[in-house]
Amino acid sequence: MRALPKTILVFDVDGTLTAARQGITQEMREFLAEARKRVPLAVVGGSDFKKITEQLADHDKDLLLSSFDYVFSENGLLGFKGTDAFPVQSIQKAIGDEKLQELINFALRYMSEIQLPVKRGNFVEFRNGMINLSPIGRSCSQEERMEFVKFDSENGIRLKFAEELRKNFGKYGLQFAIGGQISVDVFPTGWDKTFCLQYFENDYDVIHFFGDKTAPGGNDHEIFADERTIGHTVEGPEDTRKQVEAVLNAI
């Protein structure tokens, strides 16, 4: 009898397993636990490890690492197989502090000239493998966040910002992706979510990826469109459940 292909399911976090910036529900947690009895699960988010742990495990690192076979933050630049950590990558080592400062200075000048309904604090967040730039500021409230989402969809604030960054800094081997609801992610070329695939692609015959920002320019696009994966565009956690159920039923 022919052996079934070895399959793994890989998930984005925001807008896929959780509502944007919210915690995972108990129903989704139980659903994933049942799914994991049939196939291994991996999660790859653009946020830092602390934020992903907060969203998926209520700040409990041990719970997070025991709930998935692989956990990747910052697009895979910090990752775990079980409790074993992979090597950590560093954006400052990749492009140097001089170019980083040039980028940050430009971004701060650009964001200072954008007129928004409100602006708050934490406009630049430095992570291991990327710089996260938020025109409204990551200190905004949930209500202010949703107001920005509407304003951004109508005015293309982040799309224009990403394009200006691309024009000025693409020469440094950087990519610019719309991240989550309020920011633009900046990272070295190739350090998108496909980065995590190197750690398990040879162990599986089929890799399903589920994400909500899969259109060009979104931070799920590269892994969604990669030839090594079968990509699924989802519209939220409930849709993720439905699509996962369909995949499991087809195995």
From TrEMBL:
<feature type="binding site">
    <location>
        <position position="145"/>
    </location>
    <ligand>
        <name>alpha-D-mannose 1-phosphate</name>
    </ligand>
</feature>
<dbReference type="GO" id="GO:0046872">
    <property type="term" value="F:metal ion binding"/>
</dbReference>
<dbReference type="InterPro" id="IPR023214">
    <property type="entry name" value="HAD_sf"/>
</dbReference>
<dbReference type="GO" id="GO:0006487">
    <property type="term" value="P:protein N-linked glycosylation"/>
</dbReference>
<comment type="similarity">
    <text>Belongs to the eukaryotic PMM family.</text>
</comment>
<keyword id="KW-0479">Metal-binding</keyword>
<feature type="active site" description="Nucleophile">
    <location>
        <position position="12"/>
    </location>
</feature>
<keyword id="KW-0460">Magnesium</keyword>
<feature type="binding site">
    <location>
        <position position="138"/>
    </location>
    <ligand>
        <name>alpha-D-mannose 1-phosphate</name>
    </ligand>
</feature>
<dbReference type="GO" id="GO:0004615">
    <property type="term" value="F:phosphomannomutase activity"/>
</dbReference>
<feature type="binding site">
    <location>
        <position position="226"/>
    </location>
    <ligand>
        <name>Mg(2+)</name>
    </ligand>
</feature>
<dbReference type="InterPro" id="IPR036412">
    <property type="entry name" value="HAD-like_sf"/>
</dbReference>
<keyword id="KW-0963">Cytoplasm</keyword>
<comment type="subunit">
    <text>Homodimer.</text>
</comment>
<keyword id="KW-0413">Isomerase</keyword>
<dbReference type="InterPro" id="IPR005002">
    <property type="entry name" value="PMM"/>
</dbReference>
<feature type="binding site">
    <location>
        <position position="14"/>
    </location>
    <ligand>
        <name>Mg(2+)</name>
    </ligand>
</feature>
<dbReference type="Pfam" id="PF03332">
    <property type="entry name" value="PMM"/>
</dbReference>
<feature type="binding site">
    <location>
        <position position="12"/>
    </location>
    <ligand>
        <name>Mg(2+)</name>
    </ligand>
</feature>
<feature type="binding site">
    <location>
        <position position="185"/>
    </location>
    <ligand>
        <name>alpha-D-mannose 1-phosphate</name>
    </ligand>
</feature>
<feature type="binding site">
    <location>
        <position position="212"/>
    </location>
    <ligand>
        <name>Mg(2+)</name>
    </ligand>
</feature>
<feature type="active site" description="Proton donor/acceptor">
    <location>
        <position position="14"/>
    </location>
</feature>
<feature type="binding site">
    <location>
        <position position="224"/>
    </location>
    <ligand>
        <name>Mg(2+)</name>
    </ligand>
</feature>
<feature type="binding site">
    <location>
        <position position="229"/>
    </location>
    <ligand>
        <name>Mg(2+)</name>
    </ligand>
</feature>
<dbReference type="InterPro" id="IPR043169">
    <property type="entry name" value="PMM_cap"/>
</dbReference>
<feature type="binding site">
    <location>
        <position position="127"/>
    </location>
    <ligand>
        <name>alpha-D-mannose 1-phosphate</name>
    </ligand>
</feature>
<comment type="pathway">
    <text>Nucleotide-sugar biosynthesis; GDP-alpha-D-mannose biosynthesis; alpha-D-mannose 1-phosphate from D-fructose 6-phosphate: step 2/2.</text>
</comment>
<dbReference type="GO" id="GO:0005829">
    <property type="term" value="C:cytosol"/>
</dbReference>
<dbReference type="InterPro" id="IPR006379">
    <property type="entry name" value="HAD-SF_hydro_IIB"/>
</dbReference>
<comment type="function">
    <text>Involved in the synthesis of the GDP-mannose and dolichol-phosphate-mannose required for a number of critical mannosyl transfer reactions.</text>
</comment>
<protein>
    <recommendedName>
        <fullName>Phosphomannomutase</fullName>
        <ecNumber>5.4.2.8</ecNumber>
    </recommendedName>
</protein>
<dbReference type="GO" id="GO:0006013">
    <property type="term" value="P:mannose metabolic process"/>
</dbReference>
<feature type="binding site">
    <location>
        <position position="21"/>
    </location>
    <ligand>
        <name>alpha-D-mannose 1-phosphate</name>
    </ligand>
</feature>
<dbReference type="GO" id="GO:0009298">
    <property type="term" value="P:GDP-mannose biosynthetic process"/>
</dbReference>
<feature type="binding site">
    <location>
        <position position="183"/>
    </location>
    <ligand>
        <name>alpha-D-mannose 1-phosphate</name>
    </ligand>
</feature>
